[in-house]
Design brief:
heterodimer, A: 475 residues, mainly alpha, 58% helix, B: Rossmann fold, four-stranded antiparallel beta sheet, 9 helices
Chain lengths: 475, 249
């Protein structure tokens, strides 16, 4: 059996589609996961870094109070104003970010909401009031001339003069350059930020719901995203609390948090791409006219199908296990430097617990469909699973698990406690997904066995000839 | 080994592909002769456990065809037309097929070099399949079919695409193998049957027209007004002519 397993692995390694999967996983690991890890390591002294260690930590955010509600309303309204100004609204319809551009009518509705929320006039929100004000300002006693790249030249009264061509001429010792942060010109954006919320929290929620509907599912104005950003402790820029500090160093032993984040990064890819590997492996017999030589062999259908399935799953898991080795070394070295015991097996544990069941299921579905139809429908079906199988945006930060969630999201280095609170459902989910996968493999064995005996010939155009099997020549 | 075929029928979408075939095949070379579409391939596939009959029975030394677990180790099958994984070498193909035949390693070590030498491919064992000629692939196919030392070898049109020299060598190999086993060869080339088979069955339109010794098939034509010195081909053609006349009536 091991010999057959090795041969099937070798066949997979010779497939271009397998290397497409490996490259995709490498891309996610190198361009998405590793930069996040390196960035976190660069800011170990930042109070919002998970590595941050100090005598005191940020207070825990408890139940939302009025101050938090006010903060949410103001910050969300500011964001809406920026989005309105650029006519660019981000949302997450299928787990990936998308940008929406509103029509003129929709922009007018957003403007009405902004006016209601802020009490500002249309001119101020659009910035046209400030353009007029800027023109007036140029005649004031103290003139600021904003320059590209930020900053400004500040002139005292009497400095600079107009020449006969209408150009403003500055003398060598006139004016003083003030860098961007220090310059204090009354820019349009700042004047638009100067507002108080004019509505109740309930009305704010109503408006946000309508705005979210206009943009699309999973926008930054959806209630789950608002809660996540303004009521929680788990956003990357929120200062770390003592509980989070303890969870990171004691619960996760540092590497656990990164292993979870790594699994989250590749989870979307493994919801689809493994289908290519198994479909290609199964269809190779048909493409290469090998069925006539393989079907009458003494090997049982169960052994052949299970070996191929195991080979495909193993070959898919191999790069997933190898890719984080570099980051594991970096993290273990860092742990050693600060005298913390890192969990060297964290990536293996999380990869097997979180990723393996998903890979098993995607491959089992594709295996069954390919055994049945002997065409590429398995890839098509996996594409559909990929489209509908991604969890909604409120599951992005982990801890909120459903029994049939195909992938486990945990898009933060924090949240160990939240995961542990729901560990039973998480375990049940992974077991359920694995059991369904194995049941589908069992069905695939039955289908393959029938096919070997000349049954279930639909889907195979060649066998709809007057013979059940017709092996075509390719020399 | 004895293969008993009793009232075998195969329908496909209201078309009868095999019509009540009854046949007994013993050790030695057995030829299945018929035009394209006669039903030879369907019969071969049923005998190879790759197709299910609509009705009738087939037994291999009293083991029913449906008992594939017992029947498959008895059978070696060479399909009419096949290809192989192009990236594998001849040796790798043999090892892969051996693994699919559940052959123990020690048996593989002995059988694979022996078979590759017998089919004259030992020197080319490291060559990738994509670099093998059609004849070499077919020889590799027969070596693969014989890997598990089957009691029955079923070869469907095995010499298609081979040059005359390769055809002779191929049949010599089959004849050598058939001394203590059943070898069933289907073909539409009459001279092939004449050269190597002891017994023959003639099929047309799913029906069995003749079964018996090769010489008996030649004698079928001997009485006809056309031929004075009858050959197997004459007998076969005469049989087809009679059939066509019956159909016309």
């Amino acid at each position: 059996m091991m010999r057959l397993f090795g041969m099937e692995c070798k066949k997979i390694a010779g497939s271009i589609l397998y290397w497409v999967l490996v490259l995709a996983l490498m891309a996610v690991s190198i361009f998405q996961y590793e930069p996040s890890m390196e960035s976190e390591l660069r800011r170990v002294n930042d109070p919002s870094s998970v590595f941050y260690t100090a005598d005191s930590y940020a207070p825990e955010r408890g139940a939302p109070d009025e101050a938090m509600e006010q903060s949410m309303m103001k910050e969300a309204t500011k964001l809406l104003m920026y989005n309105y100004r650029d006519n660019s609204y981000l949302y997450y319809p299928f787990g990936y970010v998308k940008e929406k551009t509103m029509s003129a009518e929709e922009q007018a509705v957003i403007l009405q909401y902004l006016m209601e929320l802020t009490g500002l006039s249309e001119q101020v929100i659009n910035g046209t009031a400030n353009e007029t004000a800027d023109e007036t300002d140029s005649t004031s006693d103290t003139g600021d001339v904003p320059i590209s790249g930020g900053g400004a030249f500040v002139f005292k009264p009497g400095e600079g003069s107009m020449n006969e061509n209408g150009q403003f001429v500055i003398g060598a010792d006139e004016g003083q350059y003030v860098p961007g942060d220090e310059a204090d010109p009354e820019t349009p954006a700042q004047s638009r930020n100067d507002f108080e919320i004019q509505v109740t929290f309930e009305r704010f929620k109503e408006i946000m719901e309508k705005v979210n509907k206009m943009i699309g599912p999973g926008s930054y104005f959806s209630w789950p995203m608002l809660k996540l950003y303004y009521f929680g402790n788990d956003m990357e820029d929120a200062p770390i609390t003592e509980r989070q500090h303890r969870e990171f160093y004691e619960g996760d032993q540092v590497t656990g948090a990164f292993a979870r984040y790594y699994c989250d990064s590749i989870s979307i890819s493994v919801l689809f791409l493994p289908a290519f590997v198994i479909v290609d492996l199964m269809l190779r017999d048909k493409r290469r006219n090998m069925r006539g030589l393989i079907y009458p062999r003494t090997v049982s259908s169960a052994k052949l199908i299970c070996t191929r399935y195991a080979a495909a799953v193993s070959m898919t898991m191999l790069p997933i296990l190898i890719l984080p080795v570099k980051s594991l070394v970096v993290l273990m070295r860092y742990c050693g430097s600060i005298g913390v015991q890192g969990d060297v097996l964290a990536f293996v544990k999380y990869t097997f617990a979180w990723i393996l069941p998903t890979v098993m299921l995607v491959m089992a579905v594709s295996l069954l469909v390919t055994a049945l139809l002997e065409n590429y429908a398995g890839i098509l079906l996996s594409g559909m699973i990929w489209l509908v199988g991604k969890p909604p945006i409120d599951k992005l930060e982990g801890g909120n698990y459903g029994l049939f969630d195909l992938i486990i999201r945990h898009n933060t280095l924090r949240g160990y406690g939240r995961m542990m609170e729901n560990i039973q459902m998480l375990t049940l989910n992974r077991i359920t997904i694995s059991v369904i996968a194995l049941a589908l493999v069992g069905l695939a064995v039955l289908v393959y066995s029938r096919k070997r005996k000349g049954g279930l010939t639909f889907g195979d155009k060649k066998s709809t000839h007057n013979h059940r099997f017709k092996f075509t020549a390719k020399h | 080994m004895e293969i008993r075929i009793q009232d075998l029928k195969k329908d496909y979408r209201q078309k009868t592909v095999l019509d009540n075939i009854s046949l007994t095949i013993g050790n030695g070379m057995f030829g299945l002769l018929g035009r394209n579409g006669a039903g030879k391939t369907t019969l071969m596939q049923i005998l190879s456990t790759l197709g299910k009959p609509t009705s009738g029975t087939v037994t291999f030394d009293n083991i029913p065809l449906e008992d594939t677990r017992k029947v498959r180790p008895l059978i070696g099958f060479l399909p009419q037309e096949f290809s192989l994984y192009p990236d594998m070498s001849a040796l790798e193909i043999m090892r892969y097929l051996a693994a699919l035949s559940n052959l123990p390693m020690e048996v593989q070590r002995q059988h694979i070099p022996d078979l590759l030498q017998r089919v004259n491919l030992w020197e080319d064992k490291g060559k990738k399949v994509r670099k093998l000629s059609g004849g070499m692939k077919r020889r590799l196919g027969i070596a693969g079919a014989l890997l598990h030392d089957p009691q029955v070898l079923i070869a469907d049109e095995p010499t298609v695409g081979l040059d005359p020299q390769e055809r002779l060598r191929f049949y010599e190999l089959l004849r050598e193998f058939s001394y203590s086993r059943v070898v069933i060869v289907s073909t539409h080339i009459v001279s092939d049957i004449e050269a190597v088979c002891e017994r023959v069955a003639v099929m047309d339109a799913g029906k069995l027209l003749f079964t018996g010794k090769v010489e008996a098939l030649a004698q079928k034509a001997a009485g006809s007004s056309i031929h004075r010195t009858a050959t197997v081909e004459d007998g076969y053609m005469e049989m087809l002519r009679r059939l066509e006349r019956e159909v016309e009536k």
